[in-house]
Design a protein that fits this description.
Chain B: It is found in: Cell membrane. Chain B: It holds the Pfam family BPD_transp_1. By secondary structure, chain A is α+β, with helices and mostly antiparallel strands. Chain A has a seven-stranded antiparallel beta sheet with strand order 16-13-12-11-14-21-22, with no helix packed on it. A six-stranded mixed beta sheet of chain A has the order 6-7-8-3-9-10, sandwiched between helices. In chain A, a hairpin with an 8-residue loop joins β18 and β19. In chain A, α4 crosses α5. Chain A is elongated. In chain B, α3 packs across α10 and α8 runs antiparallel to α11. Classes of the chains: A alpha+beta, B mainly alpha. The interface between A and B is medium-sized, with 29 and 21 residues.
Chain lengths: 363, 287
């Protein structure tokens, strides 16, 4: 079932939580709403569910206007960050709840309900916990039960509010993969909220990046990472190394640091953004760049070695971060306090007068 | 209680495990106070009844008039706490769930029955419900007599013990996650179903505790009741009054004997409600 949002506006008192949000989610898509806290992503999700009502705008499910429809009648599955399992009911009773509360005429027989619950528990691979109480389950198990419960009514739309936010990293990864498989198998339309960019990029067909109640960008994960349309999206998706300076004579410079741009750019203030993998480190400056740095910390865990670097003789809003291979690390053997120079391969230039960045390639 | 390390002793101060020191001292003072304030008077009570033989004791506590007073007290306390269960839940609900002008004042007023001397409450209620009182006049039109009847006892008991229910339910209601109700609604549950199957089971233990406290308090209520009850033997005489009457007759042993019955009834009720609640909560918290 497709979801269409038209010009959604929402205020809480004088705080404007959502500004003129329009979004089209096709049938069967898995969409992630990504943004920092306070960006309005949860509010938007709750408006889709009907738990919150918009001040203006329309919501359509499969072309049908549901704006005035009560939560009860929207028939969406909703999964909460903190599971919201009923503590006084067993796992089986929790999963059966939606079927149990159907009006008598539509309600399946007790045996039928038991059978459905059995199937749902099997689907989430927790049949053996049917008679337990929620307090006896781990976080990951609770969230899977919450999912089974939400799916009991066979909703066409599944909404998840930070579903993995309260779980530890390992469980989160497993559940993420499992949810993706489930989505592909049952083929409902899913929208989930997250502030974890890795989660959004890994799980979603498309990512909706939000900030301050507005949509910044809607794109497929690869496109989003490769071509962020605004400084906000750039900042939000992974670490970014920034050189803020003045452009003059085809060079962006700030005190001791400068980079020669491969093509002519009008002079004035500008910011050059460089992703950690778009920068190399060398012991000596090169012809087109002079970016002196000092090694601040070294992290060896993972596929590559991550160095945090402090600018020397110039300033950056936060430490620079550069990844080098373990082979490079073994050859160079950097220590804390060592000096080196950054060499840009790809850079994204933001100027105050244009919203989208210009991308440059060196070498 | 440090169960993991094998047996535990009552005076296990567990050095180094607590930030604040002084377990031995604080435990000692607590035990001393419990002894002075609770155990010693109770022992005195039992000692006084011990002056009597079993048959004397039995005769005193099964005296016809005393038995009648048990019945009056129990029934009145039952209806008063039942009324408080409903009214207290409603008050707690309104105070937690809604915002309205004057909420803080109403919240503070809830404790008034605790702050008011019970005799003052009794006299006020008697005046209000008397046949020429404000409420009494109106109720007389309906043919209902409250003052100087068993109904008056219920009113007085309900008035003095209402805060127990409100104050035990309120914090639990405040802690209730709104997500639980939202989850139920997204699954299609009606408002009534959400209350019946999601909210109420969570409030139930606290409500039961509140009602039980209200009940036990009502069993022992004296000041508020005697002014409005009429105190007719066999009809509107409460057990506390029987104790008082025996005291006025300087029959301390008999007074203690009757008091011991009230004490036992209250203790049994409180213990059973505690055990029941512990079981229920263990299921909820998984211990």
């Amino acid at each position: 079932m497709s979801i269409t949002l038209e010009n959604i506006d929402k205020s809480f008192g004088s705080f404007r939580a959502l500004r003129d949000i329009s979004l089209e989610i096709p049938d069967g898509e898995l969409v992630g709403l990504l943004g920092p806290s306070g960006s309005g992503k949860t509010t938007l999700l709750r408006i889709i569910a009907g738990l919150e009502s918009a001040n203006a705008g329309r919501i359509l499910f499969h072309g049908q206007d549901v704006t005035r429809l009560h939560v009860r009648e929207r028939k969406v599955g909703f999964v909460f960050q903190h599971y919201a399992l009923f503590r006084h009911m067993t796992v089986a009773d929790n999963v059966a709840f939606g079927l149990d509360v159907l009006p008598r005429r539509q309600r399946p027989s007790a045996a039928e309900i038991r059978k459905r619950v059995g199937e749902l528990l099997e689907m989430v691979q927790l049949s053996h916990l049917a008679d337990r109480y929620p307090s006896q389950l781990s976080g990951g198990q609770k969230q899977r039960i919450a999912l089974a419960r939400a799916l009991a009514m066979q909703p066409q739309i599944l909404l998840l509010d930070e579903p993995f936010g309260a779980l530890d990293a390992k469980v989160r990864k497993d559940l993420r993969r499992w949810l993706r498989n489930l989505h592909d198998e049952l083929n409902f339309t899913s929208v989930f909220v997250t502030h974890d960019q890795e989660e959004a990029l890994e799980l979603s067909d498309r990512v909706v990046v939000m900030s301050a109640g507005q949509i910044e960008q809607v794109d497929q994960p690869q496109a989003l990472y490769a071509r962020p349309v605004s400084q906000f999206v750039f900042d939000f998706l992974g670490h970014v190394n920034v050189l803020a300076g003045e452009i003059a004579n085809q060079r962006i410079a700030q005190r001791d640091a400068w980079i020669r741009l491969p093509e002519a750019v009008p002079s004035g203030a500008a910011q050059l953004y460089l992703r950690p993998h778009e920068v190399r480190l060398q012991l000596h400056p090169v012809e087109h760049a002079h970016l002196p740095l000092q090694v601040e910390s070294i992290s060896l865990v993972g596929a590559e070695v991550r160095l945090e670097l402090r600018p020397c003789g110039w300033d950056a809003p936060q430490l620079w971060e550069v990844g080098i291979t373990h082979a490079e690390y073994n050859g160079w053997q950097p220590q804390r306090g060592d000096r080196c120079f950054a060499v840009p391969d790809v850079g994204h230039l933001f100027r105050p007068d244009c919203a989208s960045p210009g991308t440059f390639y060196w070498g | 209680m440090n169960r993991s390390s094998g047996g535990w002793s009552l005076f296990d101060a567990r050095p180094g495990k607590r930030v604040l020191p002084g377990f031995a001292l604080s435990m000692g003072i607590s035990l001393l106070f419990i002894s002075l304030v609770l155990l010693l008077p109770v022992t005195g009570l039992i000692a006084q009844t011990a002056e009597m033989s079993w048959s004397q004791y039995w005769a005193v506590i099964t005296d016809e008039r005393v038995i009648a007073s048990y019945k009056v007290t129990l029934w009145a306390a039952f209806f008063a706490s039942l009324f408080n269960g409903v009214a207290g839940l409603l008050l707690a609900w309104v105070l937690v769930r809604y915002e309205f002008p004057g909420k803080r004042i109403i919240d503070a007023l809830i404790d008034l029955p605790f702050a008011l001397p019970t005799a003052v409450a009794g006299i006020t209620l008697a005046a209000l419900f008397a046949e020429n009182g404000w409420y009494g006049q109106l109720l007389a039109l309906l043919g209902i007599k409250v003052a100087f009847t068993p109904l008056g006892i219920i009113v007085a008991m309900a008035f003095t013990s209402l805060p127990f229910v409100v104050r035990t339910v309120q914090p639990v209601l405040e802690d209730l996650a709104p997500e639980d109700e939202e989850a139920a609604v997204t699954m299609g549950a009606s408002d009534l179903t959400v209350f019946r199957r999601v909210v109420f089971p969570a409030l139930w233990p606290a409500l039961m505790t509140g009602v039980a406290l209200s009940f036990t308090r009502s069993l022992g209520e004296f000041g508020a009741v005697i002014f409005i009850a009429g105190n007719m033997p066999y009809v509107s005489e409460i057990t506390s009054l029987m104790i008082f009457i025996r005291l006025q007759e300087f029959d301390y042993a008999a007074a203690s004997a009757i008091a011991s019955v009230v004490l036992m009834a209250s203790l049994v009720l409180l213990f059973s409600i505690n055990i029941w609640q512990a079981r229920y909560l263990r299921r909820l918290h998984g211990r």
